[in-house]
Amino acid sequence: MKKIMKKTFALAVLALFILSILPAALAEEETGDVLDATPEPLKAKQAPGKQAKKVLANTKEGLKLTRERLQLLKEKHLQAREHFQAQKEKVMEAKKNVEACNEDAETCRKAKQGLRIGVKNHLVKTSDLILRSLEKLVDQVENSKALTAEEKEEALAKIAELEEELTAKKDEIESLGDDLTAEELREQIKALKNIWNKVRREQRWQVTQLINNKIGNLADKHEEYYNAMTVRISTLEDKGYTEAELAEVKEIAEEFREAMEDLKADQEAAEEAWANAKSSPEALEEAKEKQRVVREDMKETKELLREFVKEFNEVYKNNKVSDDVEETEIEEEVEDEEEETETEE
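Request: output the structure for the sequence above.
Response:
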């Protein structure tokens, strides 16, 4: 009997730890100071789903979340992660106590009860961590400059549904008494894992959509960049610059044009892959791979933009005949290109 009980708890804890690895990955790239790590229960400030629904209403009015709000969410997520890890250590210690106890001893009964309670609390912390990750996703969607109002509305509505389902499950777990059984724990672990899988799919989809739309907007701007190059070259020609003086600048502009055509072709392929991205996990991975190809193309065009600015300035300053040529505009375009091509992996 003792062996059966130990195996039952071991299976429950093993399943829990398999689940716990997943949300922990959400905060891998987080940086900054962690808030006070004293394990305290994190309570939802709003009723299920209201956080996303409130932002959804704000999005329709064009409201942008402030930088302070983003920092607060980051700190709350770090705090949830710290509490999650602390509770995980408690469960590990409770498991050791069960393994070391003697059959029919009072200490053994208390150890098993402590393990069940510890697993329950760890499920609550896991729910908190997933909820914090959804809050971060809401901010990413709401503050995106690449998504349309309709796309934001659709995304936030889906996130609100997940928030409601997850908060309801968290409340259900918290309501379980200290006399809960191993079977009840297994059912809650299975249910929470199913919710996490849905959250993870939605997160991957939304992040991929954010990046895809942003990349698409940047790809469209390259025609403007090339036109700016040709205008500046024409301006120098009108001012009397010779073919020899402009040879290097023209060569770089031509290289940019060729790279731009490659970018357009790869972006079209990425758009086609994106259209099929929801059909299966494999299709989504293919779309992400196409995105990576486009980002590599953009690294090349960005470098060519830099080279053009450098060469243009050297030619212009060394052979200056007029103050009519504006030097800063294309440099600002390069800076915009560098800033906007920084996307999340």
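The chain has nine helices and no strands.
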